[in-house]
């Protein structure tokens, strides 16, 4: 057996929600990044204009502050982060349901007429979509034209119990464990990088302040550096690298522990329970991730 399951083999709703989530995530972080950079430039031009009779630098600084204010208002009104999180929630819910259906796990157990389970699955997708109506306008038309149950999903559902068990361990559990491990390391590196940058900027501001005590006649860009340090901190907080690193690392360990709970499944009920435990672990991390956004 050499069957692989990737995102294109999942329902169209998953692909649309995933794309919408990634798109809005990029918008959100792009806006935060531009806001932080322009804030530093605004402070820099304000510093240059201090004591200058030329109003140009003051005008430029004012324009930068107006742009940053506009970005802040746009983030508040448009709320791309809400769409990002809601899209992720829908995508993960659909993915979990799809794997349960493929593996004949609760509530899509084996039955003589697969059409019954097909209708139940489609009804569940409708419920997920109805609970997230604010996302509908961002999904595009692909969700409405793609099949909710793909040929690969049907192919997997027809496999024998041992084949489905091995496929799930390889294509779902191991895949998720590797993903969470990779993301935990990535966020750990980024957290260290941006924290170090903040410390360096604060240290530089302190050095300049002390030097300014010795040479009070010098005009030093202490406020600009303070704004830069604040901007880096804003970026670090929006990315939540440290929190994500801890959460992803914990989930990766939990997944591997669950994977090791059983090396042999002999009944459909055992497989269903095994899958529910694994999917609950995935859902638990995601639920905590969504809760952090609302803090």
From TrEMBL:
Occurrences of domain SMODS and SLOG-associating 2TM effector (ranges): 11-164, 168-289
Keywords carried by this UniProt record: Membrane, Transmembrane, Transmembrane helix
Organism: Breznakibacter xylanolyticus
Protein name per Swiss-Prot or TrEMBL: Uncharacterized protein DUF4231
Transmembrane regions: 28-47, 59-77, 192-211
Pfam families: SLATT_1 (PF18181), SLATT_3 (PF18184)
Record carries keyword Nucleotide-binding: no
